[in-house]
Specification:
single chain, about 350 residues, alpha/beta, binds pyridoxal-5'-phosphate
Length: about 350
């Protein structure tokens, strides 16, 4: 009844986090301020939930367009950017998809659901990316589609812009640049958008993860085609209304992102002073660190009530690495103190 390759998969799992300091999922740790909650509730109360949403999402697309200074016709909404990735993998030319390793797992995972072959480009030991290697492997594998997260997850690396533009110029297939951490890196690639280059964004990492809202910025001609595999009403009316409201207060969330960035840099400096800890430079709202025994450290942190992300089966350069999302000041201090205890 069920395909054997699906049977062989494990369902995507996230660990239980109740009662824990949650530093595993790149969420913004600041809850919505009280005054905004009330105003948001008033806005949501006006939504006609007995009706389907506007099937074209014209209003929210216009607001995002104004926010990004892009053409509304060049914007596609997804139920999280994961759904955008799925739509692209559905609509793109048959043929291998190319990803970097270590990189974001959803690209290759969704590709496998669709029986699309995946080719990988290994990053160097310091997680840097060589554009010639990328283009050579892409051409050898006859890749039709490529994903590059800038900054990269789980490494936090932001490759130089020339590397990305060289790849954009040299790649023959469709290139997706994933800017999930745009609020933290401050660097966009919209000027690289072309017939075969588009940008994936999400509201998740800036503080609206619960809305499940992502979008694609591209040429209207590309967006029109990918829109054909979008399920009708893929984004719900409440998320749309909430996103429209929150965009009006975007400056607040950008200030939070700036504060998180400052906390990240301070935490990185303190972590680097701990003997045995390697801290990788990050342009996102998390830090990737390497410790002497990743699995043991992960468990010891969990015993102290702190959940981070470990990579137990890593055969891709992430051995003994932990990915730690920047939390509230108290949480970051508690993490730092616990890690020092564990490693001393
Ligand atoms: C978190 C993340 C996403 C997924 O975001 P959603 O919009 O929540 O689905 C996409 N790409 C990268 C690189 C991410 O880290």
């Amino acid at each position: 009844m069920i395909r054997n390759d699906i049977r062989a998969l494990k369902a995507y799992q996230t660990p239980a986090s109740e009662g824990l300091i949650k530093l595993d999922a790149m969420e913004n740790p600041f809850p919505l301020p009280h005054a905004l909650r009330k105003a948001l509730a008033d806005r949501l109360a006006e939504v006609s939930i007995h009706r389907y949403p506007d099937p074209t999402y014209a209003d929210l697309r216009r607001k995002i367009a104004a926010h990004c200074k892009w053409d509304p016709e060049g914007i596609l909404l997804g139920n999280g950017s994961d759904e955008i990735i799925q739509m692209i993998l559905l609509a793109a030319d048959a043929g291998p998809c190319i990803v970097v390793e270590p990189g974001f797992v959803m690209y290759s995972l969704i590709a496998k659901w669709m029986k699309r072959p995946v080719a990988t480009v290994p990053l160097k030991n310091d997680f840097s990316l060589d554009s010639d290697t990328f283009l050579r492997i892409a051409s050898r594998e006859k890749a039709r589609l490529a994903f590059l997260a800038c900054p990269n997850n789980p490494t936090g690396t932001l490759w130089p812009k020339e590397v990305i533009s060289d790849i954009a110029k040299g790649f023959r297939g469709l290139l997706l640049i994933d800017e999930a951490y745009f609020a933290y890196s401050g660097r966009t690639h919209t000027e690289l958008i072309a017939e075969n280059v588009a940008i994936i964004r999400t509201f998740s990492k800036i503080g609206w993860a619960g809305l499940r809202l992502g979008y694609l910025l591209g040429m209207p001609s590309l967006i029109r085609e990918i829109n054909k595999v979008r399920l009708p009403y893929n984004v719900n009316s409440l998320s749309c209304a909430a996103a429209g409201f929150l965009l009006e207060h975007h400056a607040l969330f950008q200030r939070q992102a700036d504060e998180i960035r400052a906390m990240r840099d301070a935490l990185a400096r303190k972590l680097a002073e701990i003997p045995g800890v390697v801290v990788y430079p990050s342009h996102a709202n998390f830090l990737l660190i390497r410790v002497p025994d990743g699995e043991k450290t992960f468990k010891a942190l969990l015993d102290r009530g702190i959940l981070v992300k470990a990579f137990p089966q890593a055969n891709d350069g992430l051995r003994d690495c932990l990915r730690v999302t920047i939390g509230l000041p108290k949480e970051n201090e508690r993490f730092l103190r616990s890690l020092k205890e564990i490693l001393s």
